[in-house]
Design goal:
2 domains, about 80% helix
Length: about 240
């Protein structure tokens, strides 16, 4: 369902076979190694597409993809670049599985087992195999690239990288990133805000000047009227005028 029409047209086994071959031929080392490990899971367990689906579905769920819904918010991103989406799912499983509580992991495994109609021990074995091989195959640079892919796709579902890894470092980095984005927004919009404030201030100043001018004018008129009174008026009348 997540991969849409290509799977419906060719069947899921053919789709993944083609995708894994493409990934293994990639110039990108992270993509190549991820493809090799997914293919190894497919061939090693001898149960067809169930192994890679368990891995990718687990990662998509950790990313925040509600796989039970048709036309989810992430479908467009997955269809636009299915290989990148596959790597992101693989990365989410790699970075997110260990961060989950025992109860969360149990729920994830049971959900996959029920959906794929296989035993929980088989699902657990598939995920353990994948995670072990990823740790052995990927260098630190590849893992950094994989993590960036996770962050990009997690954002599609309204999550940040810290929601996946749950590490203090990523929480701090995500907080600093949000603060930086806020600072950039203020900087980009500061001119408009200041101009608006200047216009508002000018309007207020103009209104105050008009009011003051009116007061001065009224006072001058009063003095002029007082000067025109007859000399016989006493000082009290003049003062009242």
């Amino acid at each position: 369902m997540a991969y849409g029409a290509p799977v419906a047209a060719r069947g899921i086994a053919t789709f993944f076979d083609t995708q894994f071959q493409t990934m293994k031929a990639s110039d990108n080392a992270m993509v190549e190694q991820t493809g090799r490990i997914l293919e190894a899971a497919t061939l090693g367990y001898g149960i067809g597409y169930i192994a890679p689906v368990a891995i990718i579905a687990a990662g998509q769920l950790i990313l925040g993809n509600p796989l039970g819904a048709i036309g989810t918010v992430g479908s467009a991103a997955i269809l636009a670049n299915p290989i990148a989406a596959t790597c992101a799912a693989a990365g989410a499983l790699y970075y997110g599985y260990a961060a989950m509580t025992d109860a969360e992991r149990t729920q994830l495994i049971e959900s996959l087992a029920q959906g794929l109609k296989v035993g929980t021990q088989l699902v657990l074995s598939i995920l353990d195999f994948f995670l072990t091989e990823m740790k052995k195959a990927l260098s630190s640079d590849m893992l950094s690239e994989l993590k960036a892919s996770v962050a990009e796709y997690a954002a599609t579902f309204g999550n940040g990288i810290a929601d996946i890894t749950r590490t203090v470092a990523d929480k701090l980095q995500m907080g600093l990133s949000q603060a930086y984005d806020g600072a950039i927004y203020l900087r980009q919009n500061a001119g408009e805000a200041l101009a608006s404030a200047a216009v508002s201030g000018s309007a207020l100043a103009g209104k105050a000047f008009d009011q003051l001018s009116g007061m001065v004018g009224n006072h001058a008129a009063s003095k002029k009227a007082a000067a025109m009174l007859p000399d016989s008026n006493n000082s009290e009348q003049s003062e009242q005028s």
